Amino acid sequence: AGVVIYKINESRLKRLEDSCDDYTLGFKYQLLENVRAFKLLLLVSSFSSTIVVIACFFLTLDIIHVNDDPELASMMGACFDSLVSFGSLICLCIIVFFEKDWRVIVLTKLGVTRWSVIDNEN
């Protein structure tokens, strides 16, 4: 559904840019914001879905090998937990660094002022 809405918003924005209607400035900015938000949504949801599928693979191996080899089952459970944790952390980083203002704030707080100054100029 997100892909369909993203494509609809992109086509509306393209049509709006091709026309010369003077009363569409607010509509144009709303469409730009919608396209940007859905681009972030698609990025995060596709990454999260991939991590969930891989984590479910490890969870399935954990369930299958629980009676055969408890050590292997324990390792698969730890892999599942690690993937879920790292996936959540990476999703948070994607969200923070996707937005330019948030990226500059985080880089400045981390003391990486060289990158934040360069990024702030763009």
Describe the 3D structure.
The protein has helices spanning 2-18, 25-64, 70-98, 100-109, 113-121. With 122 residues, it is mainly α. The chain has one domain (2-121). The longest helix has 40 residues, at 25-64.
Count of domains: 1
**Percent range for helical residues?**
over 70%
| Rg (C-alpha, Å) | 21 Å
Average pLDDT reading: 81
Number of helices: 5
Brief description of this entry?
The protein is mainly alpha-helical. The protein has 5 helices and no strands.
Could you name the key traits of this structure?
single chain, 122 residues, mainly alpha, 5 helices, G protein-coupled receptor, transmembrane, transmembrane helix
Topology:
Blueprint (H helix, E strand, L loop, with lengths): L1 H17 L6 H40 L5 H29 L1 H10 L3 H9 L1
Helix pairs in contact: 1-2, 2-3, 4-5
GO cellular component, one term: membrane
Family: Belongs to the nematode receptor-like protein sre family.
Pfam families: Sre (PF03125)
